[in-house]
Design brief:
5 helices, alpha+beta, 7-stranded antiparallel sheet, Protein Transport Mog1p, Chain A, globular
Length: about 150
């Protein structure tokens, strides 16, 4: 793995993971909707969701509930959890996997889990008008920006 990245600063402020200029480049609202208090956030990890005028939505979730990083994602796959698709890739040198329980990529939904340390991953979910591989390309673009922010330290 590339140099492990520290996301601890963003766990209480997940919407700060994408800077205003990055959000503008993605055509997303500058104000995201954080989730740090729901049962899902407490169990799985904090997240932030953004929307734009063409009905696109992106979310970034830090999967703090998985204590073994990307190994937990691979274990879930071996147990049959991701029957829709499971495609290893990388994002700017960090191991990643496109995956979901059903394949909704032709509807514009793509999930990408990225390992940033041995104990932490983040999940990018793209939902929007882009269909098929284009939705996954956009998820990968968002993941690259998240890594850029993490490398800068904020």
């Amino acid at each position: 793995m590339s140099v492990p990245l520290d996301a601890s600063k963003f766990l209480s402020q997940p919407c700060a993971i994408l800077a205003p200029a990055q959000l503008k480049d993605l055509n997303l609202q500058a104000q995201g909707k954080p989730d740090t208090d729901s049962q899902i956030a407490k169990t799985s990890g904090p997240s932030c969701s953004w929307r734009n005028s063409d009905a696109s939505a992106n979310s970034v979730s830090f999967t703090t509930g998985n204590k073994n990083g990307l190994s937990d994602t691979y274990r879930a796959h071996r147990q049959g959890q991701f029957g829709g698709y499971f495609e290893p890739t990388d994002v700017t040198g960090y191991p990643a996997v496109f995956r979901d329980i059903k394949d909704f990529r032709n509807n514009g939904t793509c999930n990408l889990t990225v390992g940033i340390s041995d104990t932490l991953t983040f999940l990018v979910t793209e939902q929007g008008p882009l269909k098929g591989a284009a939705s996954c390309d956009r998820a990968k673009q968002v993941a690259s920006l998240v890594i850029e922010t993490l490398k800068r330290g904020g």
